[in-house]
Design a protein that fits this description.
By secondary structure, the protein is an alpha+beta fold. It has 17 helices and 13 strands. Helix 8 (295-308) crosses helix 9 (317-327). The two termini are 43 Å apart.
Length: 562
């Protein structure tokens, strides 16, 4: 899975659009980074920018934006309603897909170090990237704001994590951190009462509501020995919520920020708001997600609702997302378009690269039959492996819904989920095999006039050849894994579909053997014989085992057919 992180820097300029554009232009210069949103605020004199991409590109875009902001914004003349202490006030990195928080923390600290050293800006690491537990709290890092920064830098507690202790009068300081993704979601209610919406919000939000004397709504708030209001916590951790009336829709809503989707997933929050609303005689008619969400949010939700229906979770991604949208009423007020609301889909929309797997069956066959050398046997092998996984998955899904087998739905669902994962991995390898071939062709096309160029060309060819061995070897391994599913489906699956599973075994064996041929021919020209011989030995064993496994499965299928 591709690693994707989001970056949401806040710049201390919200009024001069020329300055803001110069900063965001730096983001858009970086290939592979997608600028999602630019939100300037007049009163706060602050602009929140959101962009996503793979980690290295996002770090470069963030650095260049911070650099440009330090050149254009003079904190000595800055005034606004929002707390701030630097031209780039905060710059959080957020894991979106294929990356852990721990990895994101390391990227945040890498960025912080570079900003401190190359730009001469004091940097405080906050949230999950904090070295000092106290600095997890952004307010602690920013205490005293810009006006108190010079004095703070001279104290032990005010020493930055990176960068100089000297006061940078124009750029100020920056807080760079890593935090979880924040989802903004509003729950639509069948009431116009803001009071009732607020009551539901107080029921669920982590902060809860004030405890009142005598337990009465009209009672005075209870104070502790320090004079602080005693709160009755709500039921959902990592959430903030309030009730309001939306003139545009003519209804009240519970407006919620989920600050940690690992702690409280979107569907868990929805179910809890739904339950608390029902307890107060109010119905949640649907919800609206504000801004973008990671795909995982909706995949997790869709699988949750499929499981409640005792349906197989091993279905296509689009179907899972559709179930999530319908279950939470995300299209209640207006159409929910996954291609516009899911971060990964928004990023893919900018990818103009033609993919083999996006072709029709006819188009793919015609492209293969053309005079072009790619796609060739490697891509076809990967596709046969994907078909093996697809056939096994199909039988698992049919088995999970077979009348009389209702109690076994979860057993077959697990097989179907495994099959979906393998199918997607092998579909990726369809294009990756062609990409590997193109890498070799590109390497052969490098200049070779000087000795230095010749050496670089030779090295590039060998590196590309090694990759052209690794890709079909991965195809072999993943295709071999599909035997587990098709064999299980021949043994225990819907007996009416035993031949479908058996055809999957034929596809799996053909995929393994086809990829084996590619491994062999590419390994023959690799100079690194230790690498080549190691892969060849493992690949040969896989090929031999594939032949045996196919025979075993076909024998079982013959016995089932009778």
């Amino acid at each position: 899975m591709k690693k994707i992180i989001e970056c949401v820097p806040n710049f201390s300029e919200g009024r001069d659009m020329n300055v803001i554009k110069q900063i965001t232009d730096e983001v858009e210069k970086i290939e592979g980074v997608k600028l999602l949103d630019v939100d300037p605020g007049q009163a706060t004199n602050r602009t929140v920018v959101t962009f996503v991409g793979e980690p290295e590109q996002v770090l470069e875009a963030a650095f260049q934006a911070i650099k440009k902001a330090s050149q254009l914004i003079d904190m000595r003349t800055h005034h606004g309603a929002h707390p701030r202490f630097g031209a780039t006030d905060v710059c959080p990195l957020i894991p979106v897909a294929g990356i852990t928080m721990e990895e994101t923390v390391e990227y945040a600290r890498t960025l912080a170090k570079r900003v401190g050293e190359e730009l001469g800006i004091a940097v405080y690491c906050y949230e999950s990237a904090a070295f000092d537990p106290r600095r997890r709290n952004l307010a602690y890092c920013r205490a005293g704001e810009y006006e108190g920064l010079k004095d703070k830098l001279s104290t032990p507690d005010g020493k930055p994590d990176f960068g100089p202790v000297e006061f940078n009068a124009t750029a100020g300081a920056t807080a760079i951190g890593a935090r979880d993704f924040l989802v903004a979601i509003n729950y639509n209610l069948n009431t116009t009462s803001t009071r009732r919406a607020n009551a539901i919000a107080f029921d669920v939000r982590e902060k809860g509501r004030p405890q009142r004397e005598g337990g009465k709504v009209t009672g005075k708030p209870v104070k502790d020995e320090k004079g602080n209001t005693v709160m009755i916590p709500g039921t959902l951790k990592a959430t903030k919520a309030i009730g309001w009336f939306i003139e545009e829709y003519g209804i009240a809503q519970v407006s919620m920020n989920i600050t940690n989707i690992s702690t409280t997933p979107v569907h868990v929050a929805y179910e809890e708001v739904f339950a608390k609303a029902a307890a107060r005689g109010v119905r949640v008619t649907g919800a609206e997600i504000v801004g973008l969400v990671p795909k995982k949010c909706l995949i997790d939700a869709g699988k949750y609702y499929l499981a409640k229906q005792e349906r197989s979770l091993g279905v296509d991604e689009a179907e899972i997302i559709k179930i999530a949208v319908k279950s939470m009423g995300l299209d209640d007020l207006k159409p929910f378009k996954p291609e516009e609301k899911i971060i990964e889909y928004v990023m893919e929309a900018d990818n103009k690269e033609k993919k083999l797997v996006d072709m029709t069956c006819t188009g793919f066959a015609n492209e293969t039959a053309s005079e072009s050398p790619a796609p060739g046997g490697g891509s076809i092998s990967a596709y046969m492996g994907a078909l093996a996984a697809a056939l096994g998955t199909m039988v698992a899904n049919l088995s999970s819904h077979k009348p009389g087998w209702d109690e076994r739905w979860e057993e077959f669902s697990k097989w179907a989920e495994q099959g979906q994962v393998l199918k997607d991995e092998l579909l990726h390898l369809v294009d990756e095999d062609t990409n590997a071939f193109n890498k070799i062709m590109n390497a052969f096309g490098l200049p070779k006039k000087t000795d230095e160029e010749k050496a670089a060309r030779t090295a590039a060819i060998q590196e590309a050849t090694k990759y052209a061995i690794e890709v079909p070897f991965r195809t072999m391994k993943k295709s071999f894994e599909t035997f587990g599913i098709v064999k299980a489906m021949v043994e225990i699956g819907n007996p009416n579909s035993v031949t479908d599973a058996a055809v999957g075994a034929l596809c799996a064996r053909s995929a393994v053997m086809g990829a084996w041929l590619n491994v062999r021919i590419n390994a023959s020209s690799l100079k690194d014989r230790d690498f080549a011989d190691k892969v060849l030995a493992e690949a040969k064993q896989l090929a031999e085992q594939a032949m045996k496994t196919e025979a075993e499965i076909l024998k079982m299928a013959d016995e089932k057919i009778g």
